[in-house]
Design a protein that fits this description.
Helix content is 31%, strand content 23%. It is of the alpha/beta class. Helix 6 links the parallel strand 6 and strand 7 (153-157).
């Protein structure tokens, strides 16, 4: 079965955030990722596949296509049997309790996808993103998150206003902060990770005074910093270990 011009146009348009917002839809590809999302509360809009594997999805939502057609609509270098369009769920409200990870202008989709997976792994149920952080429904983010997108509440907001209004202890990851391995970390807190190139913005630095850092043990002075996703993994591990 071939896909219609309107279907092709919709799939193409969803590579842009403005159309994802307009249609309230996003794309996921590959058997593993699509299976994870199908098993969640997310609603499938339509599913394009090269076999009859998806018997659990209503027939009126399944479009069986050839591998050649899949290659035409796929954004992957090696298309994997299925491309699905899902409905974007309503964004939840921020919870003022427990531990929250916050992101200040994270730009790289791969980093955001990995951080979402890390939140899922370490049981961090809430991820608060600045308005200039990459869209979590960007297809590269969806692929990198590997289904964890469905298990972490991701909220976009004005980060400055959010941090000014919270009663929770707040921390920024900073090279000049206190050694995280020697610091007593609280059970309820907000940890803010900064932009890949510029770190924490000055406006956030003016609000948050608590700084924690990951000490460097290697002797190579050319290594200036860790990738933000790698740093997030270490700091989340320490926060969770201290509970």
């Amino acid at each position: 079965m071939s896909i219609s011009k309107n279907q092709f146009k919709l799939i193409s348009s969803l590579s842009q955030k403005k159309y994802r917002t307009k249609h309230k839809l996003f794309i996921a590809e590959g058997v593993k990722v699509v299976d994870e999302i199908l098993s969640s509360s997310f609603q499938v809009h339509s599913l394009f596949c090269t076999n009859d594997y998806y018997t659990s999805v209503k027939d009126d939502k399944v479009i069986r296509i050839s591998e050649i057609t899949l290659k035409k609509i796929s954004k992957l270098k090696t298309p994997n049997k299925v491309l699905a369009i899902f409905e974007i769920p309503a964004e939840k409200s921020i919870k003022e309790a427990g531990f929250t990870l916050a992101l200040d202008a994270i730009n790289d989709p791969g980093n955001l996808g990995t951080i979402i997976r890390l939140c899922d792994w370490f049981g961090v149920s809430q991820l608060v993103c600045s308005l200039d952080t990459v869209d979590c429904y960007n297809q590269k983010v969806v692929q990198a998150s590997m289904g964890s997108l469905t298990r972490v509440s991701i909220i976009y907001t004005d980060l400055n206003s959010y941090l000014k209004g919270t009663d929770l202890l707040t921390f920024i990851a900073d090279m000049n902060g206190e050694n995280v391995y020697e610091f007593s970390l609280p059970k309820e807190a907000i940890l803010i990770m900064g932009n890949e190139a510029n770190g924490i913005s000055n406006s956030i630095r003016n609000i948050v005074k608590n700084k924690i850092s990951i000490p460097k043990f290697g002797e190579d002075q050319e290594i200036e910093s860790l990738n933000v996703a790698s740093a997030s993994a270490i700091l989340l591990s320490e926060f969770k270990r201290s509970l």
